[in-house]
Amino acid sequence: MIDLGISKLALIGAVALVVIGPEKLPRVARTVGTLLGKAQRYVADVKAEVNRSMELDELRKMKESVESAAKDVESSIQSGASDFEKSWQEATAGLEGSAEASSDNSDALNRIGTDLYPVYRHPKKNWRVKQGAMPQWYKARAGVRTRAQSGAARVARFRPRSNPTVR
């Protein structure tokens, strides 16, 4: 890029002072500064957009690799499960008569299991009711508002009353 040192900046400033004049120089300098700031922000926005698009591409590639790995694992599990089912069928082929007894035992165990574990209930009865953290007596003493009032009602409440008997 352009190499601007202090001596070059001083030379540019002197030439600008002579050409533009001392009355218009501050306004021109402000305008040039704002334009340079806008240009820098534009360049930073373009860089950020390019970085975002590059990161998005990387995330897409990572997503595709994870999906392919998941498909590979799923296919290996499916093939392993089918091999296991075949070996299980072969091992239990001679036990057809005992399969009915084992199913009766599993039903009994299921019924016992439900009796052992009670149904979950929330510990608080009225958990939907909001519990105040500050006691009511403290709110009354400290002057904390417990009820909402409109602005007109508040003005009417605290407006000094005129006393017609006092002159």
Structure report:
It is a single chain. The protein starts with 5 loop residues before the first helix and ends in a 9-residue tail after the last helix. It has five helices and no strands. It is mostly helical and 167 residues long. 71% of the residues lie in helices and 0% in strands. It is flat and about 110 Å long. The chain has helices at residues 6-20, 25-91, 96-116, 136-142, 151-158.
Provide keyphrases for this structure.
transmembrane helix, transmembrane, Sec-independent protein translocase protein TatB, 167 residues, translocation, mainly alpha, cell inner membrane
Overall pLDDT confidence: 80
Rg, Å, rounded: 41 Å
Largest sheet: none
Shape: flat
Q: How many DSSP H or I helices?
A: 5
Unreliable residue stretches = none
Looking at how many chains there are and whether they match, the oligomeric state comes to single chain
**Total beta strand runs:** 0
Pfam families: TatA_B_E
InterPro entries: TatA/B/E, TatB
Keywords: Cell inner membrane, Cell membrane, Membrane, Protein transport, Translocation, Transmembrane, Transmembrane helix, Transport
Membrane topology: Single-pass membrane protein
